[in-house]
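Re: Re: token formats

Sure, here are both.
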Amino acid sequence: MTLPITSLTGMLALSEEASETQETINPVLPVGFEIFWSAVFFFTLLALMRYVLLPPIQQGREERAARLSAGRDSVSDSDSELAQILAAHKEQIAVAEAEGAAIIDAARAEADGQRAQAVGAVEEEITKLRSNAQAEIDVARSTALAGAKGSVSQLAVGAATKVLGRSVDLASNQSVIDSYLNSGS
């Protein structure tokens, strides 16, 4: 939008006439009564802050600091008590472990003694069984040899008769056959 130049010059002339008729007021510079009331309100607010509003805030901060300090002291006391309890607990555990190790060692020693007794009893029983079995074997062998002596003697005499080509007497050669059979057993 373009305004003609004449209208702009007219407006400029009107603004100059208005400024000449009014006094110039500077809004930044205060007037005397404004300075007075500003000072009254400033010092009233300062006194209100200093003596009424600030003390409860400072008291609250001091109480909070005291609670924090008490809490820190309580925590340090709790930490020291915890350390003492932990040390006592570790000591009890060490004592219990030592007692447990002693009980286990005693049980092992007792078990080894019982095992040695049991092994000794079993070995003794095995020795008895072996000697009884050997005695039975010896009896069976002597019984078998005694039973077989007659037939072996007959067989030996028969074989000698065939080999020599003459008749061999059993009664006269029985001592030779018996000595041979006894030496072989």
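Second one below.
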Amino acid sequence: MKYCEIFVKSALVRSKLEYTDFALNPYRGCEHQCVYCYSPYVMHLPLEEWKNKVYIKVNLPTVLNQEIRRKSGFISIGTVTDAYQPAEKKYEITRKSLEVLLKKNMPISILTKSNLILRDMDLIKKFQEAHIGVTITTLDEELRRKMEPNAAPIDARFSVLDNFKSKAITYAFIGPIIPQYTTDYLEDIIRKLAKLKVKYVIFDRFRWKKDMQLPRYLESKLDKIEISQMDIKVRAAYLSRKYGLRYSILW
């Protein structure tokens, strides 16, 4: 993995995500190398570059400090790439950005596949409103290693929710929902989340992008995904209500 340090002119980007005013991405590119990731296609970057090169926005906290003087709103951190990917352990761009945001106590949300976020609990717990979420795609750890090779193990992600449940507003992002890989474990996932007292769950479909390159074992699921869309939505809603969880379905 190659790290490239870059300087940026802006930190906050207007977001089209629901309930989000601005997106903040401390890095470009991602070391997690999830096989279903559609970010490089959205960002119009070559897949090999996305997988093998991470751009470190070294001056992002400084730029952010200037921008928040004239901006306010809800900020989602890591909307395109994981803010707690391995590069963060060395560069701490996310942590430094949190220190800046805490000065103004701006409401934040962070979605990650890494338990490195636990390092920053000392800062996050001070925010008046902080939503902390983890992505869950399956409970099969062997399959997880195939699909999300450099992300944290499943148990480590549940541990994040457990540790933050009294420190922040916790939630889970279940997606992309893939027949067999996700659906076979859906009730078990939701049951575990209910025990961890997460505040809400977000369900998301598999998002196909033009020229997307997928492993053969995953590509073979695509027809089933299209056929079972409605069934998945109905089941996700039913199980959430069954276990008393607030939910939203992004379809």
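The chain has twelve helices and eleven strands. The longest strand covers residues 130-136.
- S.
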